[in-house]
Amino acid sequence: MSLTDDDFLRVLSKIGETDALVVNVVDIFDFSGSLIPGLQRFVGDNPILMVGNKEDLLPKSLKRSKLKDWMRQEANKVGLRPVAVSLVSAKKNHALADLMTTIEKYSKGRDVYVVGVTNVGKSTLINQIIKKQLGVAELITTSRFPGTTLDKIEIPLDDDHFMIDTPGIIHAQQMAHYLTGKDLALVAPQKEIKPKVYQLTGGQTLFLGALARFDYLTGGKSGVVVYTDNNLPLHRTKTENAVSFYERHAGELLQPPAKENLEQILPWERFEFKTEQKSDLVFAGLGWITVPADAVVAGWVPQGVGVTLRRTMI
Length: 314
Ligand code: GDP
What we know:
- This is GTPase YqeH.
- The chain has helices at 6-17, 31-34, 39-42, 64-77, 96-107, 122-133, 181-185, 242-249; strands at residues 20-27, 48-53, 84-87, 111-115, 140-142, 152-156, 162-165, 196-200, 204-208, 212-218, 222-227, 234-238, 268-274, 279-283, 287-291, 296-302, 307-311.
- The protein is α+β, with helices and mostly antiparallel strands.
- The protein has two domains: 6-165, Rossmann fold (3-Layer(aba) Sandwich); 176-311, no CATH class.
- The relative contact order is 0.13.
- The model is unreliable at 142-149 (pLDDT under 50).
- The structure holds guanosine-5'-diphosphate.
- Guanosine-5'-diphosphate binds at residues 53-54, 56-57, 89-92, 116, 118-124, 168, 190.
């Protein structure tokens, strides 16, 4: 289901008509790729609790309170005003008890709707909650959303209130849509990300596999920090040689994707930014590179994926 699907819009407006808590699950590794445009408007006066999942991917040294502040501020920038922000790892079963306490606090005996784009780990989270809440799977599957064909899971919270799962919404701007199987496994991190530091001078380029390219165009000698899957190969070259380097090595030294899949990701699109402060250059779904202030940088990605600049997360 896509963000513009009628079924999806019906689900959201149905939530807007009820009195409920909305739990918006996001992937902190792909934060902007997990935001649902217009969510605040659709859910009306209902409070939103933002849950940042995949916490296990971020360095342990990163202060969780700082990360929550960052999430709240980034959410505010796109018009989302969550009443609270939680961090969990659904896969590692981390902080889920805290999450249930927070949900109870803000739901105040109302129903709870869980919304999220695909791939944020919503099913993993729902399954963990089911295991936690219910000894046996006493689940009800009903058509909560009149006018749609969607059957969704409901988890009883008390005698007459439920946590209701909603269909995952497809967000087109995700690298995941351009990759398959083995290639996908090389960009979706499974373990804590080990940041990689590069000392760069103006006129140097980093390739992220053959999937993305980062140009450090001007700026003094400075460290940039790459946050991507630990197994994604990175290669440095001179910007002036980058095109021929790509032509010679794409699909071989530069992977993923493998040679036979290169066609799928072309053509590339280029995004250029001048940084005013230390910032993250985000390659949607692939990760980000923290760059210094007063630098001119460019990011190249397959058309449709998108590169953005944001206030630094870490
Ligand atoms: P959904 O589309 O939102 O329902 O997402 P899934 O539950 O199917 O999960 C999408 C991917 O994210 C899967 O590869 C999961 O293994 C992974 N995933 C889910 N939760 C976590 C988590 O807490 N940490 C990490 N590292 N990966 C997770």
